[in-house]
Amino acid sequence: MSTTHAVEGVVDAGATSLLRFATAGSVDDGKSTLVGRLLHDSKSVLADQLEAVERASLGRGQEAPDLALLTDGLRAEREQGITIDVAYRYFATPRRRFILADTPGHVQYTRNMVTGASTAELAVVLVDARNGVVEQTRRHAAVAALLRVPHVVLAVNKMDLVGYEESVFAAIAEEFTSYAASLGVQEITAIPISALAGDNVVTASANMDWYGGPTVLEHLETVPVVANPSDDPGRFPVQYVIRPQTAEHPDYRGYAGQIASGVLRVGDPVTVLPSGRTSTIEAIDALGQAVDVAWAPQSVTLRLTDDLDISRGDLIAPTASAPSASQDIEATVCHVADRPLTVGHRVLLKHTTRTVKAIVKDIPSRLTLDDLSQHPAPGELAANDIGRIVVRTAEPLALDAYADSRRTGSFLLIDPADGTTLTAGMAGTAFAEAAADAAPAPEADDDGWDF
Amino acid sequence: MTTATVATEANGDNPYALSHLDALESEAVHIFREVAGEFERPVILFSGGKDSIVMLHLALKAFAPAPVPFSLLHVDTGHNFPEVLDYRDRTVERHALRLHVASVQDFIDRGELRERPDGTRNPLQTVPLLDAIEKNRFDAVFGGGRRDEEKARAKERVFSLRDEFGGWDPRRQRPELWQLYNGRHSPGEHVRVFPLSNWTELDVWQYIAREKIELPAIYYAHEREVFARSGMWLAPGEWGGPKDGETLETRLVRYRTVGDMSCTGAVDSDADTIEAVIAEIAASRLTERGATRADDKMSEAAMEDRKREGYF
Question: Which residues form the signal peptide (chain A) (predicted)?
Answer without folding.
Answer: none
